[in-house]
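Quick one: structure tokens for this chain, please?
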Amino acid sequence: MLSTEDKALLAEKGIAEEQIEGQLECFRKGFPYLKLKAAASLDNGILSPSEDDCKHYVDVWNAYKQGGRSVCKFVPASGAASRMFKNMFEFLDADYDVPQTDFEKNFFDHIRLFAFYDDLNAACLKNEGQDVEALLADGKYKAVVANMLQEKGLNYGQLPKGLLKFHKYPEGARTPLEEHLVEAALYAASQGKAEVHFTVSTEHRALFEALVADKLPVYEAKYGVKYHVTFSEQKPSTDTLAATMENEPFRIDGKLLFRPGGHGALIENLNDLQSDVIFIKNIDNVVPDRLKSATVQYKQVIAGILVSLQQKAFEYLRLLDGGMYCHSDLEEIIRFVQQNLFCRNEMIKDFEDAELVIYLRKKLNRPMRVCGVVRNVGEPGGGPFLAYNADGSVSLQILESSQIDKNNPEYVEMFNKGTHFNPVDLVCAVKNYKGEKFNLVDYVDPSTGFISYKSKNGKELKALELPGLWNGAMSNWNTVFVEVPLQTFNPVKTVNDLLREQHQ
């Protein structure tokens, strides 16, 4: 089936032939839906720490950092901002020249409030010979938008979100990349060093590197830390084969078509990091300094909960591996796995002690993450659930709507009535008690990918999305959910979101 040319392309990407066969099999069979037990809630799987608890966990976190541990902040930042400007691209293409929709009117009524306004003004002056005010007075609305989106102006339609100016400050506007650098100094710096890792697209990497080189001295001086900023790109080996509607390899001019495997591919990038603890947060979920205190506090809270749970798990693993335990110790460990790690299995009551030790060891000896969740406010995306695993146990998972069987009314109701939402606010512990790093790829559940439908050159195709980074790619981790305040969640999905009070 594979030609010499195909095999050369696979070798170049670092993809084995067996993987191709495996992917075609996924297209043929599809993916099973997850079996759900319940939506996680405050009385069932979501912790809500009191004020005193919060203080305690912040102290735990700060003590942990004093112990010479390495901490990193991981920020997926490769996506282009084109979706953010979807409405304004539509206005450029519309058969009218004056704003008609509420979105368009809101954009132009408040245009002076955008942090990029001065840059846009300068671009308009250079390219049109008029500033923004004069262009709007003359009814040249589209000229303003063209200078924002197109290459001749700011080129915001093609740039990634991380490089756009989001927030105004007296000393000048800041991009999300800079806001993440500030955050890293405030909660992820250990012993005067702040590590930040951005995943970026190949075409924009040089722009990211230039911005970092320009800004690091400013923030190092301001926060008294030394930054270590690194970048990586999605690996070509994580690209997935596109298929025809008949589940055959999709070809263009005889060549196999590959597509990026979605954010789940980034488990490989995460796996390359050597830090003890890694924070994960999306690039667009940032706020100006005046609102950062809640974010900084709760990041430390969830990190304190993580290292507390990890210390306990390590203590139990040492006990099991040392062989100096009795039955009551096993009962204590069961309680910890069930009550603190929210992992239950009805079958263990029939286990002999020897089987029980194997089971408990497996559940304790794996990567761990604590995820901040916020009250559901109708944003699209994943939610916290209790779901069944392949071994019959039930554990906490973050699920996307695509993983839920829409023909099962009980599951749909669970999803619709879910009280909480995951804003991608994670802190991860990725080493075992001996200080050895887990191979994160071993903890992916491959059955949690999904198939989406796209087109290329006017032909329909099937695309294979890898298990999502915080969904199936972390399916076999220990997961704990903690309620965090809504003010820690301020994503920017459209350009007008920047007009919200939280971004002003």
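The longest strand covers residues 368-375.
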